[in-house]
Amino acid sequence: MTNKGFSLVELMVAMVISLFLTLGVFTMFSMSATNVTTTGQYNQLQENGRMALAIMAPDIEQVAFFGDVTGSDFIVGTNTTVDAAITNDCIGGGLNNRTLPVDIASHFRRIWGYEVGVSATSIDCVTDANAGTDVIQIKRLKGPAGATTGFRVATTSSQIIFRGNSTGTAVKNQRVWNYEHNIYYIGNDNGIPSLKRYSLSDSGSMDNSEGAIVQGIENMRILYGYDNDGDDAADRFLPVENVTDLMWDNQSFQRIVAVKIFLLVRAVEEDRSYTDTVTYQLADKTITPTDYEGSEHYRRKVLSTTVMLENPVLIRN
C-alpha cells in the first residue's frame, strides 16, 4: 500500500490561500474596530452636546425670574434690601452687575455675556475661559417657594430682600426662594475643553469647585434675540458684540426675549486614524481647520437650540 500526501506545490498553494483568508479576516476586524470607534465617538458627541444644552437651557429660560417682584427695578433702600454679603464675587460689565444689586442709579443686570479676548469687558472671576468662546451669566430665583436652606431671598408684591443663608425677620406675605447666579463658559479640564460654571454657593461665595460640567465642549457661541416692537417675539438675533446697554438693562422695550446657543462638541479621545478637515459654522462664527490645528485627530459636531426667555415677556405683560 502506497502512502499519499500533499506535494510541495499543493502545500504552497494552500499556504497562499490561507494567507489571503487570514489577511481578509484581519481586514474585517480592523474595519469593524474602526466602525465601532467612529460610531462610539459620534454617539458620545451627541450625548455630551445634548447634556450641555439640557443643563444650560432650563436655567437660561428662567433668567430674571424674581418671584412676586419679577419685572421690577431693584432700588436699594426703596424696594430692595441687601442683608447679605458675597465673597469672591463675580463682577461683570455695566454699573450694576454683581451677584447682588448695589445702591446705584443703574438697572440691575439679570443676563449678560461677552466673547473672551474679543469683547472690551469681561467677568473678573473667570480667568480660565478659552479665547474666542462666549461667556453667559444669568441671575434668577429658583422655586418652589419655601426655601429653608441655601442662599435665600424673600419677596412680597412690593419688595425683595436678599438674606443669604440667614432667615432674617419675616415680612408680611413673604415667600422665600433660593437665589441662582450662574456663569457658563468654556475652559480646559485636564487638557480637555469643557463646559464649566461659576455658581453662587449656599454660603454666599462664587466658585467653580465642581470643575467641568460636561467634557468635550470646545466652543460656544450665543446669539441674543431682542424684541424691538413690543410683540414679545425676537425681531433679530445678535452676537454679543452687537448687544447694546439698553438691551442688557431691559430698557425702552429693548428686551432680550430669546437666546440661541451653538456648541462645537469635540470627542474626548483622539483617533489618529481620523483627520478632521471640516469647516464648522457656529451661527455667525466660522471655525476652520486652521483654528483647531494641532487637534485635528478629534471628531466634532455642532449642536444648537433656541431658548425662549419667559420673564422678559412677563415683564411687558
Automatic annotation (TrEMBL):
Alphabetized, the UniProt keywords read: Membrane, Transmembrane, Transmembrane helix
The record ties this protein, via Pfam families, to: N_methyl, PilW
A GO biological process this protein is involved in? type IV pilus assembly
Q: What residues form the membrane-spanning segments?
A: 12-31
PROSITE patterns tied to this protein: PROKAR_NTER_METHYL
* Cited NCBIfam families: IV_pilin_GFxxxE
- Protein name per its UniProtKB record: Pilus assembly protein PilW
- Higher taxonomy: Bacteria, Pseudomonadati, Pseudomonadota, Gammaproteobacteria, Alteromonadales
